[in-house]
Amino acid sequence: MQTSFTLAQLADPDIAEAEKILRACVHCGFCNATCPTYVLDGNELDSPRGRIYLIKAMLENDRPADAEVTEHIDRCLSCLACMTTCPSGVHYMHLVDHARAHIDETYRRPLGERFIRALLAKTLPYPRRFRLALYGALLGKPFAPLLEAIGLKQFAAMMRLAPKRPPHRPVVPTTIAAVGARKGRVALLAGCVNDLLAPEINAAAIGVLTRHGIEVVVAESAGCCGSLVLHMGREAEALAQARTNIDAWSAIEGLDAIVNTASGCGTTVKDYGFMLRTDQAYAERAARVSSLAKDISEYLSSLALDAAPGLPSLIVAYHSACSLQHGQRVTRQPKELLTRLGFTVKDVPEGHLCCGSAGTYNILQPDFARRLRERKVGTIERLRPDVIAAGNIGCITQLAAGTALPTVHTVELIDWATGGSRPPALRRNDGLPLGTKRLGAEELHR
User: Fold this and answer.
1) Which of 85, 104, 176, 322 is the right S-S partner for 440, CB 3.0 to 4.6 Å?
2) How confident is the model at residue 433 (pLDDT cuts 50, 70, 90)?
3) DSSP 302-358
4) Looking at residue 357, which CATH number applies to its domain?
């Protein structure tokens, strides 16, 4: 794509990066076929190619964002399916994140939008605040239909997505020793949402790691990865959260990896090196942190895992989270692990299409998110699986809200298959007691 940025504009490293990305685009349109919003409505402006044109015009002319540009960029899920499809290697992720930051700086949203975005940005990344908000959502859940009827769709979406049970406690910093001789040491990115909504996920990760000789450290002061606010255009907040994590993990000696169980977080942590490339105080450490970051399935695939005897043969519909398959290009490891441990794994048709979760998307864009979930759940249920497995808490929450099938994290099945406890979602579906016996679960949440 031909561009016409001035030399003064190109002196800005973010504009220079955007120009390089734009020049890589050849208008082929292959990306349109795999873009969820374009597939739903066929609107060119809701396709990657259309959004690229909008971003190019906005940045080249150095003009503030307007309502039209903002609307179509807001509808982007950042699923990154376009990047997997693109034959020219267009790095759409960096381009759209820069566009969102430009929108946040130059466009004044309507009051209601400003309020809900500020509420999400100041609540979700902070576990104690989010825990209080979940109690409020629990009380407000019965009023979701009323909220939608009076036009407050985003608040209605929040109520519907909230769990039906009280939230759990945030994780506490701790070190969980390896069982037997220590063979490795990892830091676990606990995440800001995981342990409040589904503490069994990190407990399963800790269980399978420690049983196989890996010491697990939950670092003091490590918090949100920054992805939630980054994708809302709040770049300064995202960079501040990234720096906090880099400081926390850099203080730990002897790490083999920084492991995460939320693939949306992992995609962002793996991008810290790029995000902080111009920060002289953090660039080197950020690059090192990114090099150490691994999805839990990536790390477990390097270990010799043995299946425990007596597990039932289950059919698993594996939902490949967009942030894992498109953002991190981790596609085979989760399925290989599950298959090796005795599960029958089925790929979901249209697996490249997003389920509609996408961080805060299912709150901010509830209509698109609902339609995408219905499409995804339909394709999954036609497989007639026993259980759905995914590698991201957002996908798990989104899918569970649309189906009666038990929905679990991939690592829960891996933990169970290697000697851990049966996943709670499966126990709820067969009447077995809900108590947990996973190593480290109680200690983490005292």
Assistant:
1) 176
2) very low
3) TS---PPTT----EEEEE--HIIIIIS---SHHHHHHHHTT-EEEEPTTTTS--S-T
4) 3.40.50
Q: What distance in Å separates the CA atoms of residue 278 and residue 340, rounded to the nearest whole number?
A: 43
Residue type, 378: G
Domain range enclosing 364: 315-430
Say if residues 357 and 392 touch (Cβ distance below 8 Å).
Answer: yes
C-alpha span between 293 and 295 (Å, rounded) = 7
* CA-to-CA separations, 99 to 57, 59, 89, 231, 241, in angstroms, rounded: 11, 8, 19, 10, 20
Phi (first) and psi of residue 318, to 5 degrees: -90, 110
What total of structural domains would you count in the chain? 2
The string of pLDDT tens digits covering residues 261-300 is 999 999 999 999 999 999 999 999 999 999 999 999 999 9
The model's confidence at residue 428, banded by pLDDT at 50, 70 and 90, is: low
CA distance 385 to 318: 9
Tell whether 327 is covered by a domain: yes
The two structure tokens encoding residue 277: 């490339």
Contact 273, 293 (CB under 8 A): no
Burial of 437 (0-12, 13-18, 19+ CB in 10 A): exposed
